[in-house]
Design brief:
By secondary structure, this protein is an alpha+beta fold. 28% of the residues lie in helices and 33% in strands. It has two domains: 4-145, Nuclear Transport Factor 2, Chain: A, CATH 3.10.450; 177-329, Roll (Nuclear Transport Factor 2, Chain: A), CATH 3.10.450. The radius of gyration is 19 Å and the shape is globular.
Length: 332
């Protein structure tokens, strides 16, 4: 399939958004988004249905705080939405928004130094306009760069995370659809056969069915990044499964793939209870939702790299812990 028209819309939108002065942001969003625009963002921004609100709530304050912003994109691809029976094309972008942290943002105090907001974004492009956006960003990752410790017991490693090891993630030209189907098939295998935690196999054997042994899992701040199936099982997947119960089925709004890259997002992806003290939280019978974007790189017939965006602030808020609300008393 050809996705050049949709890709061009998003690339032009980024060029306009990233270069315009702050007082022109609303006009850019108005020009590139549909009249009935839906925007999904992480806490504290949540669901919005107005480009003007998105401008004044997120983009203008962020650009005022992080000056001389530039987009450092590592992954860019498009695809037909597997979830949408009526058919729709989505464009995915992932990377960092980099700039100078010169003014406070969300109560996070400025450093005057370079900083990066890790992000992944899905855009539904319809009739030459962006009709829907899922814009997921790692605010705790941003906080750590600014000197805070929102999750002092993080099990895996913290990095300003790189893009693909192969440096081939920017699919500005359309890619062979056969390769995209291979990627989608591996994602389906992982989701349907393995992603429900009921395969009956030992965890590492289960993971080996769809992951390379030297996989890299680039997780969100609060969990961290981990390398190899064995360490991934020890540092994330094992604690995640043992600490959560009553997991719901997986629900996605978009699931796409092109070439060796694929991804999906949900609102939420699933729900579960914290019944095993996950991330040091007290046990709870409350069913909480997980908002997630996953971006994958396939190598041969298995998954090799995975970048994960989880709304950790929203998840902790559901447990009665307001991480942003504690910033007044936080020490850097």
């Amino acid at each position: 399939m050809a996705f050049q028209a949709e890709k061009q819309v998003v690339r032009e939108y980024y060029d306009a958004l990233d270069s315009v002065e702050i007082d022109g942001i609303s006009a850019v969003l108005s020009d590139y988004t549909a009249a009935k625009y839906t925007w999904r963002g992480f806490h504290p921004f949540h669901l919005q249905v107005s480009s003007e609100v998105v401008s004044t709530l997120f983009w203008q304050p962020f650009r005022s705080a992080v000056t001389h912003m530039q987009r450092r994109m590592d992954v860019f691809f498009a695809g037909d939405n597997f979830i949408d029976e009526d058919g729709s094309v989505w464009v995915c972008s992932m990377g960092h928004l980099m700039g100078l942290f010169d003014s406070q943002w969300l109560g996070i105090q400025p450093t005057g130094k370079m900083i990066m907001l890790r992000y992944a974004e899905f855009h539904k492009v319809l009739d030459g306009k962006i009709a829907e956006t899922a814009f997921y960003f790692d605010i705790p990752h941003f906080m750590i760069q600014a000197g805070y410790a929102p999750f002092p017991d993080q099990a895996a490693a913290h990095f300003v995370q790189p893009g693909p090891a192969t440096h081939d993630g920017l699919l500005f030209a359309d890619f062979d659809p056969v390769e995209g189907k291979k990627t989608l098939d591996v994602m389906h295998k992982m989701i349907s056969d393995l992603g429900q935690w009921n395969s009956g196999l030992p965890l590492e054997e289960e993971l080996a069915l769809s992951w390379h042994d030297d996989m890299i899992w680039w997780g969100p701040a609060g969990i961290g990044a981990t390398y190899t199936i064995k360490r991934y099982a020890e540092q994330h997947s094992g604690p995640f499964r043992s600490g959560l119960s009553d997991r719901s089925g997986t629900g996605h709004i978009a699931r796409i793939a092109e070439g060796h890259y694929g991804g999906f997002f949900g609102w939420p992806n699933f729900r579960a209870k914290v019944t095993g003290g996950y991330l040091g939280l007290p046990c709870s019978e409350k069913l909480c939702e997980f908002r997630v974007i996953d971006i994958y790189r396939r190598e041969d017939d298995k998954l090799k790299e995975n970048w994960i965006f989880i709304d950790m602030l929203h998840f902790f808020n559901q447990q009665g812990i307001d991480i942003l609300g504690r910033l007044k008393d936080a020490q850097r």
